[in-house]
Amino acid sequence: MKILAINGSGRSNGNTKRLLKECEYIMKDTDEFEVIDLSTYDFSGCIGCEGCAKTYQCVIRDDMQKLYPKIEEADGLVLASPTYFYNISSKMKAFIERLYPYEIFHKEDRHVWLSYTEVFGLKYGLVIGVCEQLKEEDMGFTIEAMSMPLQSLGYRVVDEVKVLNLFTRHEAEKDDESLEKVRDGMRKLYQTIELKQELLSAKRSAK
Ligand SMILES: Cc1cc2nc3c(=O)[nH]c(=O)nc-3n(C[C@H](O)[C@H](O)[C@H](O)COP(=O)(O)O)c2cc1C
After folding, report:
1. Which of 42, 72, 83, 93 has the fewest beta carbons under 10 Å from its own?
2. Per CATH, is 2-206 categorized as 3.40.50.360?
């Protein structure tokens, strides 16, 4: 099993990264788990050129090109972002915009569309929001801003984890409750994919 985790934080070693590290403990030795720190990748948001409508690929040559194969190979995607002004970070927003080639529109009627995963196989996602304040409302749109695009891209989002009350860079390390919440979300993602793989293998051996 391959799971790709996307860290949208501006600090590559902050709370979001620590929480993603916790996800790794759910994976088994034979699995692959990679965390991508978007802050170390050089790319910007979609420029709306619609080049992908012709080629089914993003035509901008930047670091997103390193990420597309990883996204396509992964069975599951974890999107994690700190709350920046009630929303996701700009880097996470840019990343999501650049997933536009995975939404395919009919050339004659743009109201007819499908997602890449509908063609090549449904996938699964987990969304994690991290914020400083104590109330969920202070997280604003952080969760929805990741969950809605992911769902429209044909990922079933198995859990949405809201981690509150983390501010300084290393606070997550001491926050057992938050670490457990994240592990639980990751366990759901892992077991959902595991179930799919078991069913596929049972079907194959029944033939
Ligand atoms: C530009 C900016 C805006 C922020 N806006 C919010 C906010 O609207 N609500 C909130 O609760 N925390 C907000 N925070 C706090 C971060 O979400 C919090 O410190 C988080 O733990 C950072 O995660 P990181 O360590 O992975 O970078 C903001 C932080 C920054 C840098």
Report:
1. 42
2. yes
Ligand 1 atom with the shortest distance to the CA of 166: 21
The residue extents of the domains of the chain are 2-206
Atom of ligand 1 nearest to the CA of 131: 17
Q: Is 11 in the pocket of ligand 1 (CB under 6 A)?
A: yes
Atom of ligand 1 nearest to the CA of 140: 8
Question: With bands split at pLDDT 50, 70 and 90, how would you rate the model's confidence at 12?
Answer: confident
Q: Choose which residue among 7, 18, 83 to substitute to test ligand 1 binding: the one with the highest number of ligand atoms within 8 A of its C-beta.
A: 83
The rounded Å distance from CA 172 to ligand 1 centre is: 13
Confidence of residue 113 (pLDDT cuts 50, 70, 90): very high
Q: What is the mean pLDDT of residues 4-29?
A: 96
The three-state (H, E, C) secondary structure of the chain, written as one string: CEEEEEECCCCCCCHHHHHHHHHHCCCCCCCEEEEEEHHHCCCCCCCCCCHHHHHCCCCCCCCHHHHHHHHHHCCEEEEEEECECCECCHHHHHHHHCCHHHEEECCCCCCCEEEHHHHHCCEEEEEEEECCCCCHHHHCCHHHHHHHHHHHCCEEEEEEEEECCCCCCCHHHHCHHHHHHHHHHHHHHHHHHHHHHHHHHHHHHHC
- 83 CA distance to ligand 1 middle (Å): 5
